[in-house]
Amino acid sequence: TVNGLEFAVKDLSLAPFGRKEIELAEHEMPGLMAIRRQYADTKPLKGARVAGSLHMTIQTAVLIETLVDLGAEVRWVSCNIFSTQDHAAAAVVVGRNGTPEAPAGTSVFAWKGETLAEYWWCTDQLFQFPGGLLPNMIVDDGGDATLLVHKGAEFEAAGAVPQPTADDNEEYQLILKTLADSLARDPKRFTKVAAEIRGVTEETTNGVKRLYKLAQDGELLFPAINVNDSVTKSKFDNKYGIRHSLADGINRATDVMLGGKLAVICGYGDVGKGAAESLRGQGARVVVTEIDPICALQAAMEGLEVVELDDVVHKGDLFITTTGNFGIISAAQMSRMKHNAIVGNVGHFDNEIDMAGLAKIPGIQKIEIKPQVHEWKFPDGHSVIVLSEGRLLNLGNATGHPSFVMSNSFTNQAIAQIELFTKPGEYEKDVYRLPKHLDEKVARLHLDALGVKLTKLTKEQAEYIGVDVEGPFKPEHYRY
Ligand code: NAI
C-alpha cells in the first residue's frame, strides 16, 4: 500500500514505458475512446466498484481507465499466470497523474509469471475494496472471479469448505485453500459479495459456457452479459485477433520458419479459423481436427484437410489446440511426435494439452530454453517444444491481440457494464447478450479509422428488405 493505494505488481519503474504504449493503444482503440467522450459528463458508472479479472495487458489498461473515466472504482487481476504485461500493470497503478514514487492510479494485483497460489491470492484481492466495501460489478474472462464467488457462497451456505482430496488437481486445491482462509476471516464474505453484485460481463467462450451451466442449474447468483457472443467480439477478436497473435507468439517463442511446415490445428471454431488463417498466411500446410460436422465441412470448403490427430501426430511440425475442451493432445501422442515438434494452446484453459501426463513420463527432462519456452526431452533423446506450459501462448509468448480488435471487444464490455450497473432489477439471474443495435454501434465506431464508407439504405430499400433505415440490419438468427 502506497498513499492508500493497494497493489501488487512487478516494478513501478516500468510505468513510463507502459504509459507511452497505452497512449499508442488509445489511438488504435476508437470504440473505447468514443465511449469515454460519450459519457464524459454523465459518468454512468459512478458508484460502481468493478472487480476485473482479465489479462492485464496494454489494451486492458485502456479498458480499465475507460471504466474509471466513466466513474467506476476498479480493482484488477489477470486471468492467466503468464499474460500480464508488467509495464501495463505498472502504468495502471501509477495512473495518468501519479509517479512511480507516488502512484495515484488503480489497484492492480498481477505480474507475469505468477505461481498458481499467487494467482488465486490475487483473485481473492478483488473482493475487498478500501473502507470495507465490496465490489458490485465483475468483469470476467474465463469465469475465475465468478467461480470464486459461487464456490465461496456455496461453501458458506454449507458451513464449511471441503478438505482437498488426492483426486483434486493442484488448482482446485488452491481454490479450496483460498476459500477456507476467506471463510476463517468472515464466514459470510462471498454470500455478501454475491448479494452486492449487480452483474458480471464475461469476455470469453469458456467463461460463457460456465455461466450458461450455472443458469441452467438455477445456481447463477447475479445477472450476466455474454460479451463473447456479440458479433463484434467473437467474430473479430477470436478470429482476427488470433490470426495476428498466434503467429506472433510462435515467432517470439521459437523464431522457427513457418512456411512449408505441417501445422495441425485442433478445433475449427472462431479461434481455430483465425489460427488456420494465421499459419496459412505464413505458408504453412495447415490441417485441422474437428468433432462438429459443420465446422469440419467449413474447413474442407476452405481447402483444409480434416484429419484425426493420431494420423498426423508423427508428421506434424506444429500442433495448436483451440477447442476450449480438455484432453485434446495426450502425453502418449506427444511422445510420438517428430523431434522438436512445437506444441501450444490458445484455448482458454491449460487442460487441452496433458502437461501433467507429460511430466509423469519416466525419465523425461524439462529444459528451459527461456521463460515460457520448454524443451521436453524423452528418454530416447528426441524432444518436443512446449509453449507457455500449455497455457494461452498468444498471451504467454507474445502480447495477445492487437489494440484495434480489442477495442471492439472492450467497447462491448464497457457498454455491458453500463447496462447491468445502471439497470438493477431489469435483468434476472440469467445470461443475456447485448441487443443487435449496440453490436452494430460497436462496429460503426470502428469504421472511420479504417476509411470505410458505408452505403446508406434508402427508405424504399429498407422497406423492401424489412429493416429500419438506421438498423438493426439483420435478424437475430443471422450468422455473419
Ligand atoms: P468455438 O466453440 O467457436 O470453437 C471450438 C471448436 O473446437 C468447436 O468448433 C468444437 O467443435 C471444436 N472441438 C471441441 N472438442 C474438440 C475435439 N475434441 N477435437 C477437435 N475439435 C474439438 O470456441 P472459440 O470461440 O473458437 O474458442 C475456443 C477457445 O479459445 C475457448 O477456450 C476460448 O475461451 C478461447 N479463446 C482464446 C483467445 C485467445 O486470445 N487465446 C481468444 C478468444 C477465445
Automatic annotation (TrEMBL):
Pathway the protein acts in: Amino-acid biosynthesis; L-homocysteine biosynthesis; L-homocysteine from S-adenosyl-L-homocysteine: step 1/1
Q: What is its EC number?
A: 3.13.2.1
The alphabetized UniProt keywords are: Cytoplasm, Hydrolase, NAD, One-carbon metabolism
Q: State its role.
A: May play a key role in the regulation of the intracellular concentration of adenosylhomocysteine.
* Compartments, record wording: Cytoplasm
Species of the source: Kibdelosporangium persicum
**Any idea which positions bind NAD(+)?**
238, 267-272, 290, 325, 394
Primary location: cytoplasm
Q: Could you say which cofactors this protein requires?
A: NAD(+)
Similarity field:
Belongs to the adenosylhomocysteinase family.
Q: Name the positions where substrate binds.
A: 57, 141, 203, 233, 237
Q: What is this protein called?
A: Adenosylhomocysteinase
Domain spans labelled S-adenosyl-L-homocysteine hydrolase NAD binding: 238-400
* Alphabetical list of InterPro entries matching this protein: Adenosylhomocyst_ase-like_sf (IPR042172), Adenosylhomocysteinase-like (IPR000043), Ado_hCys_hydrolase_NAD-bd (IPR015878), NAD(P)-bd_dom_sf (IPR036291), S-Ado-L-homoCys_hydrolase_CS (IPR020082)
Classification via SUPFAM superfamilies: Formate/glycerate dehydrogenase catalytic domain-like, NAD(P)-binding Rossmann-fold domains
Query: Which HAMAP family would you find in this protein's record?
Result: AdoHcyase
Q: Which principal EC class is assigned to this enzyme?
A: hydrolase
Give the top-rank taxon of the lineage listed in the UniProt record for this protein: Bacteria
- Keyword S-adenosyl-L-methionine part of the UniProt annotation: no
Q: How is the cofactor bound?
A: Binds 1 NAD(+) per subunit.
